[in-house]
């Protein structure tokens, strides 16, 4: 397999993806617990698809470990991955390279109105807020840009969201600075039924696909907002 491969795959957490391969869900669970369970199964399914695509050892997925901060990883120094889920959607970012390259991802499927300005007041600088709040028609998109990029950056190193304020976002310069992340690139998409943001270290060219109707269907001609990190 060629080195420096980078893939982002997303899918709905529909049972048809994985229903024949896992035990039946306990229907006494709360609906929110069932949703999380379905998302975990979907993430595992997507990772399996990627491992099979690149002929990697599936036993690695049976022995997923966690760092001290709870970030999952496998015992192969060529592989890094990260998972995110929101609502009915699940996204996985997968990196394969000679010398592990860090990745992080966040997907947000808004299902309710949030206190956007209050949240921005909590973690954003005055300069960032001035830009994000200047156009009320774009408030929701701008909020999720600022939120998702922080999630993706911090998740690349398994750092908790308590460090939100320590991510410096310069929306005009399209630049991000954070001591909890290596130098790299960040992409943000608002064109899907959800907001998608991912960070990657290195120079690999990302390939984005949706798992739909039994296949990985490559997404083309949809361009992201691009940020340089550190």
Automatic annotation (TrEMBL):
Gene Ontology CC annotations of this record: cytosol
Entry's EC annotation: 2.7.8.-
UniProt keywords, alphabetically: Transferase
Domain 4'-phosphopantetheinyl transferase as annotated: residue spans: 102-168
GO biological process: lysine biosynthetic process via aminoadipic acid
Family matches, as Gene3D superfamilies: 4'-phosphopantetheinyl transferase domain
Gene Ontology terms, MF aspect: holo-[acyl-carrier-protein] synthase activity; magnesium ion binding
InterPro entries: 4-PPantetheinyl_Trfase_dom, 4-PPantetheinyl_Trfase_dom_sf, P-Pant_transferase_sf
Coiled-coil segments on the chain, per record: none
PANTHER family associated with the record: L-AMINOADIPATE-SEMIALDEHYDE DEHYDROGENASE-PHOSPHOPANTETHEINYL TRANSFERASE, PHOSPHOPANTETHEINE TRANSFERASE
Family (UniProt): Belongs to the P-Pant transferase superfamily. Gsp/Sfp/HetI/AcpT family.
Protein name from the UniProt record: 4'-phosphopantetheinyl transferase sfp
